[in-house]
Design goal:
Layout (H helix, E strand, L loop, with lengths): L1 E5 L3 H12 L3 E5 L3 H11 L4 E2 L5 H4 L4 E4 L6 H10 L3 E4 L7 H13 L4 E3 L7 H11 L6 E11 L23 H4 L1 H11 L2 E9 L11 E8 L4 E7 L1 E13 L2 E6 L4 E6 L9 E4 L7 H16 L7 H20 L3 E2 L6 H8 L1
Parallel strand pairs: 1-2, 1-4, 2-3, 4-5, 5-6, 7-10
Antiparallel strand pairs: 7-11, 8-9, 8-15, 9-10, 11-12, 12-13, 13-14
Helix pairs in contact: 1-9, 4-5, 5-10, 6-8, 8-10
This protein binds nicotinamide-adenine-dinucleotide.
Nicotinamide-adenine-dinucleotide binds next to helix 1.
């Protein structure tokens, strides 16, 4: 297939690499001429340009991959949606609900296949947990506890992290929206969210403009309650999840590559059942994700994360931010965008 990658930075080059490995015909675009030329040389790509609109003069595209700074995701995706071209956008798709309304409408009206890069949905642990919950192995889910932490300066060690999108509110940064995939996989496992509340701020030594931690409470439509913690100021990386149901509980620790299940019926001396998984390189998940997207484009079927689904995760992120400003629990369906979401899902 003919696929263009827009934005040739850290994520863009991963996608280029995977697309070439999968045998696709790749063209590239970046506003930074030096980077564009370097990447073109490295991957021996001839079709390149500095303005995404020029890509259409280079090729008749089947799909585009948008891997620019967050602030451009919606605008560029929308441009291609209006031309009927499938798009995969990096996350977060946007931190603005108004832009998303426009994009979702253009995607649906033009019958375009869309996907937002929620890579954790392809993670073997998340898939296993979803399956265990769906199979009812712990009965009715009551509570969820999600803990995550990373060290933002480690993301791009050679660049001044305080000026990166993830550190700046104006560029759609901050831990809540930048780590939206953590909220998305809770929706993937537990369903849609009804009410939210959070506290967040920039409090640590990394001293960034946007919030560097948040603690949130989520109430799901099916009655599940979750507490969520995420920060940008700790080493090593941590991702843990605990789910407690009427018949037992599930634990996952990213660093130990194991999902564990304990059944209440086994009594106090019962044993954990363990589900180890192999994942030596997290980046292989991005390749799986890209394969999934392109097979959906080819077969003209909906992806695992179409834009109208991802909007619901963004709304949760925006509602979490709003809740601390208003110092009250926010009802997610009361967010102004909700009518359009219903339209999108209809
Ligand atoms: N899916 C994930 O797990 C994941 C992980 C990290 C980052 N991301 C997201 O990927 C996106 C890119 O992150 P990155 O770390 O690769 O950033 P980066 O700064 O390394 O690369 C971004 C590139 O986009 C280019 N660019 C910016 N505006 C452009 C435009 N209008 N047209 C063409 N090129 C443009 C820049 O020149 C730069 O080369 C971010 O939105 C980030 O949130 C996703």
């Amino acid at each position: 297939m003919k696929v263009a990658v827009i934005g040739c930075g850290s994520m863009g080059t991963k996608h280029i690499n995977h697309l070439l490995e999968l045998g696709h015909d790749v063209s590239i675009c970046d506003i930074n001429a030096n980077r564009l030329n370097e990447v073109a040389k490295k991957f021996k790509i001839e079709k390149k340009c500095g303005n995404f609109k020029e890509l259409l003069d280079l090729d008749s595209l089947d799909a585009v991959v948008v891997a620019t700074d967050t602030a451009f995701h919606t605008k560029i995706s929308c441009y291609f949606a209006q031309k009927g071209i499938a798009y995969y956008s990096e996350i977060p798709i946007s931190d603005s609900l108004a832009d998303l309304r426009f994009l979702t409408t253009a995607t649906i009206e033009n019958n375009v296949i869309s996907m937002v890069g929620m890579v954790w949905r392809f993670h073997p642990a998340i898939q296993k947990i979803k399956q265990l919950v769906q199979d009812g192995i712990i009965g009715k889910v009551n509570t969820v506890s999600s803990y995550g932490g990373e060290y933002l300066p480690d993301w791009h060690p050679n660049e001044p992290y305080k000026r990166e999108y993830s550190a700046l509110t104006s560029k759609g940064g901050g831990v809540i929206v930048t780590n939206i995939s953590g909220l998305d996989y809770l929706r993937f496992i537990c369903g849609d969210i009804e009410n939210v509340f959070a506290v967040y701020d920039s409090i640590s030594h990394i001293d960034i403009e946007a919030e560097d931690f948040f603690m949130g409470i989520l109430q799901f439509k099916n009655g599940v309650f979750a507490q969520v913690y995420s920060d940008f100021f700790q080493r090593p990386v941590e991702h843990r999840l605990e789910i407690v149901g009427d018949k037992g509980k599930i634990h996952w620790d990213h660093n130990h590559k194991i999902v564990r299940h304990f059944s209440l019926a086994d009594g106090v001396s019962g044993n954990w059942k363990e589900y180890p998984y192999e994942l030596n390189n997290f980046h292989t998940l991005y390749k799986e994700e890209m394969k999934h997207f392109l097979s959906c484009v080819q077969e003209k079927k909906e992806t695992m994360v179409p834009v109208h689904d991802n909007v619901l995760s963004v709304i949760v992120g925006v509602a979490l931010k709003q809740s601390f400003i208003e110092r009250k629990m926010i009802n997610v369906s009361s967010m102004k965008w909700s009518n359009t979401v219903e339209f999108a899902l209809a």
